[in-house]
Amino acid sequence: MTKTEQTDNPAQPSDNRLAAAANHCQAVSTLAARMEEIFASGGLLAHHLPHYETRSGQLAMAQAVARTLDPEEGRAGDAPLEEGEHLLLVEAGTGTGKTLAYLVPAVLSGRRVVVSTNTINLQEQILAKEIPFIRRYLAPWLKALCVKGRQNYLCLQRWHQLLAGHRQGQLFAGSGPSLPVDDRELTLVSRWLTETEQGDRAELRLLADDSQLWQAINAATGHCPGSSCPHATECFITRLRQRAARAHLLIVNHHLFFSDLAVRRFGHAEVLPRYEAVIFDEAHHLENIATRHFGLGISHYQIIDLVRDLESMAEERLRGQERGRLLQNARALAVEADLLKDFFPPERGRFPLLPLLRDRPEWPHTRQGLENGFLALGRQLEELGRSEEVWAPLLRRGQELADTFRAIVEPTAGDGAAGDAIHWYERREKTVQLAASPIDIAPQLQQNLYQQVKAAVFTSATLRTGSDFRYVKSRLGLPESCPALALDTPFNYPQHTLLYVPGPDFPLPGSRDYPAHSLRVIRELIRHSRGRALLLFTSVEAMRRTAATLTGSVSYPVLVQGDAPRSVLLEQFRHRTRSILLAVASFWEGVDVPGESLSCVIIDKLPFEVPSDPVIMARIDKIQAEGGNPFFDFQVPRAVLMLRQGVGRLMRSASDRGVLAILDVRLFSKGYGKIFRRSLPPSPISRELDQVEEFFNQESNR
Asked: Which residue among 155, 198, 308, 477 sits deepest, i.e. has the most Cβ atoms within 10 Å of its Cβ?
């Protein structure tokens, strides 16, 4: 049995037992009442989980989730559901035990439930830890399956095409120029295919993360020939869909869920079968991820990738003039794609699209060239498709790219926004992406998610700003009446932590004196904590400047994001008890280092975003146009949630102790500082470094 699936053994009941077991549970007692039998003192968890401690918050969450998954529970007669009653928000602080609190009622509800997370780590924890426990003591019939995006699975058709080309001495096209096949990787994949049942790339532990070979053989949607594929019966994606259709609990990531939801609007589905309920863990990511998948996007790389696949198919299946004509059309499209890339300024970053298109007189010629390239190619693929179905997926890919391109660049009035979408482009090192993103995703979620499921639960350690859920409700389009539960962490912040903020004489961020003063305080904090510090920055420049100063001037190893992979840095930080780790962006969350190695979290500034991203700018403009206050309604809440994630890196177990340091006096000097302070854990506050030293000295004497 692989780690991505927990299946029945022959002695276990059939799928039909799911409903029967769930009905039996509710015949004995309501689902919410059953939670008390499981989570309360002396309950099932206390009997079977070593060192289990009853937590009132965990029980309250389990009961709330149970009521949401079974909204008819306890309702008199045919009383209708209140608006939003099938929805639930739960902020559960670190240590609450929220994973079991939603998994147990989900499994016992009798519904097919999707659990969507943001990180692979949480998915693996659920499959390796929680699911085996639930199957052993609560639901032996449970089938749980981790479903990933198609690009994580091998495509047998592409694999056999690559092998055929390799035997003929052809190159293959990865994500860069055409390359020779690496015989070692080829042998590795060949051996793996004799053993694997799922074709999951995660099983190929020895294959490099950036393998060019995998790019050429994965089962991404655009490459699938569908029912005409000669390997359809043994296809890993087909088998995945079959297993998913039999599963009671599906575990996915947010990107897959919203990718599937986006195509489901048009009557299709990626790999997920119909489900009745969804539980979002790490739900504070949903707005950004839904924005990506409910929008449109096309990149220079996608066009070049299509061209390479066309070249490969032409060499394999065509001869004479027909092959020459297809190669000519494909390469002409590649030339037009390169001209499109060169049209955009070289400065990297994201920028509004439509003003640039209006201001550049050469744009109509550039656009027409690319559209003509798609048109000529499409005509030939239509001709080829009349005799062989194998050309249909390539024709579909070309048409979809052409339609997407046209929808994004169609000129409209405005400053980069077209109706309810913001049109933008991103210049990267080797490619350019064009996109149109919804300014407000709430209507999409209301129509395509909330109205289509019987229950939806949103949970995270950080959903509130200040002391309420108004911000997250407004951004996700949840009704005001949506039930919301706030469960504080059981960790003893008043006794185990100290929050340090510099005194009133400390300079404001952005002032000339701030960098020197912050470096001085950082050195002092590291000295008092004896290393063991995670430094979180709001800019790469500040991180690198601080790293350059600290390296060689402190007596502890200095680990810097970018010098090694994230996993390697975190492993070194965990095992070197006295080291310091400097990071930005992704390290503000998902870093789990319990114990002595992380005893001090230092944050340089309140994490306000620079409002230069076109999507952020468009949302600010929309709030302002509607009479709102973008700073307090949007920018402050986003910064609060980010700060709470960073602060949450310190306490990862009940025995942890340490100092939180936020080197930004705006927490006290600005009116909005009160909103941030109300959002932080209940740590005693100090504005004197002497008290930090005393705190760590007390630790040494324990």
From this structure: 155
- What are the phi and psi torsion angles at 595 (to 5°)? 95, -170
Cα distance between residue 375 and residue 402, in whole Å = 8
What is the C-alpha separation between 603 and 643, in angstroms, rounded?
8
Pairing of strands 172-173, 178-179: antiparallel
What does the DSSP 8-state code read for residue 621? H
Where does a domain end: 455, 487, 519? 487
Residue bearing the bigger pLDDT, 216 or 272: 272
Percent of the chain whose pLDDT exceeds 70 = 89
For the chain, the C-alpha Rg in angstroms (whole number) is 27
Confidence at residue 607, expressed as pLDDT on a 0 to 100 scale: 97
Check whether residue 481 and residue 587 sit in a common domain.
Answer: no
CA distances from 445 to 142, 354, 615, 623 (A): 29, 27, 18, 19
Residues 542 and 557 in one domain: yes
b/e per residue 170-194 (b: at least 16 CB within 10 A):
bebbbbeeeeebeeebbebbeebee
**Closest by CA position to 438, among listed 539, 544, 570, 294:** 294
Q: What does the alpha-carbon distance between residue 679 and residue 636 come to, in Å, rounded to a whole number?
A: 11
Structure tokens at 207: 């294959």
pTM for this model (two decimals): 0.88
Q: Residues 471, 539: one domain?
A: no
For 550-615, give the DSSP string. HTTTSSS-EEETTSS-HHHHHHHHHHSSS-EEEE-GGGGSS----STT--EEEE-S--PPPTTSHH
Shared domain for 353 and 460, answered yes or no, is no
Residue with tokens 């060949």: 190
Residues constituting the chain: 702
For 561-584, the pLDDT digits (tens) are 999 989 899 999 999 889 999 999
- pLDDT 10s digits, 622-638: 999 999 999 999 999 99
562 and 424 co-located in one domain: no
Query: Does residue 373 sit in the same domain as residue 424?
Result: yes
Examine residue 641 and state whether it is found in any structural domain, yes or no.
Answer: yes
**Residue 563 burial (CB count, 10 A):** 11
Mean of the per-residue pLDDT values for the chain? Answer: 88
Three-state SS for 455? strand
Question: Distance between CA 656 and CA 654 in Å, rounded?
Answer: 6
Residue 583 lies in a domain: yes
- Edge-first strand order for the sheet with 144-146 is 5-6, 144-146, 249-253, 113-117, 277-280, 455-460, 87-92, 484-487
Residue 22 has pLDDT above 60, yes or no: no
* Domain span including residue 468: 16-143+445-487
- State both tokens at 620: 């600010």
Among 429, 453, 487, which residue terminates a domain?
A: 487
